[in-house]
Amino acid sequence: MLWPVRFVSDVPAAAPVRVVLRGKSFVLWRDASAAVRCAPDACPHRLSMLSAGRVERGDLVCRHHDWRFAGDGACVRVPQVGRGSIPKACNLELRPVTVMDGVVWLADDDACRAGTPTNLLAALGPRDVVTDRRLASPTSYRLQVENALDVAHINTVHAGFQGSRERVGPIHLSRFYEDADVLACCFAHDSETPDVDVVFLKPGVVVVRVLDKATKRLLRTNVVHVAPETDASCSVLFRDVAHDSNADPTVHRWLTALIVDGIFAQDVAVTQEQLLNQREFKHGYCLPAPADRPLAAFRSWCSSVGLL
Predict the structure, then answer these.
(1) How many degrees, rounded to 5, is the angle at CA 36 between CA 130 and CA 31?
(2) Where in the chain is the domain with CATH 2.102.10.10?
(3) E strands, 62-194, in order
(4) What angle do CA 24, 279, 276 make, to 5 degrees?
(5) Yes or no: is domain 2-107 CATH 2.102.10.10?
(6) Whole-angstrom Cα Rg for the chain
């Protein structure tokens, strides 16, 4: 499956970056052409972490003994060998990298069964303001995606940030669609809460579109990229798009980052409670409300593809 692991802007030219995907460690770096490369985060020599090394003129250099690897994975210098030949066993086995929509995507196996990168940035208008925020979540992939699919918690968990407890009430599911790649829902609240469209691009992206209740004009788009690291942690690449904004972009991004951090802290508090309870209580969820339908569909899909 194809997973979103980093914003491209989070991979600098002068330093490698460590990522963990489904229990496996990888190193990202930019080669001499500035293309993002990926390999297992272990030097073939003594298994030192290559992400702890450095990047020089596009070559990845291990800090342990200064072995040097080119962008194609070839080991091009072993100082201790001098001018002698370098065995092919010293080369890195590169992993395929897809870069789209400002995000680095990695496959967790050679047979990529699913994965739908977004293409949002290409469609933005001149007054749309984008804020990207990378977050480390101490909860599971499944709980993180469920949280993004759950429109009902906005007015409760995030009262004062995004919603209000005075608006808690019935939520109507006006559209539901699912196929092998996409899960899509449209929600309308009885209260003054804006309408919300939610699209899950399997396996790792939730796109939330907030619409003006009266005019249906698109106000905001949130894109939540989630990639599993371990059974109890995941990476979250959060992208906020304010559409047709009159705000100063620099100030807007600063304020948005503060709000996103606050909302994320509230979500973490809830999902960590759920994670602890899942370990103790083995019964399933009770999902009677229309707003719960995407959660039930997501859990069913996870079971069908082995994402336990």
Answers:
(1) 130
(2) 2-107
(3) 68-69, 75-77, 97-100, 103-107, 129-137, 171-178, 182-189
(4) 90
(5) yes
(6) 22
* Residues carrying CATH 3.90.380.10, the chain: 123-305
CB 78 within 8 A of CB 19: no
Within 10 A of 74 (CB to CB), how many other CB atoms are there?
15
Instruction: Give ∠ CA 179-200-17 in degrees, rounded to 5.
Output: 125
Higher pLDDT, residue 293 or 163 = 293
8-state DSSP, 271: H
pLDDT per residue over 252-283, tens digit each?
999 999 999 999 999 999 999 998 998 888 77
Q: Would you state the structure tokens that stand for residue 247, as one six-digit string?
A: 């705000």
Lookup result for tokens 């990695």: 106
Residue 232 CA to residue 272 CA, distance in Å, equals 9
Determine whether domain 123-305 maps to CATH 3.90.380.10. Answer: yes
Report the chain's mean pLDDT, rounded to a whole number.
92
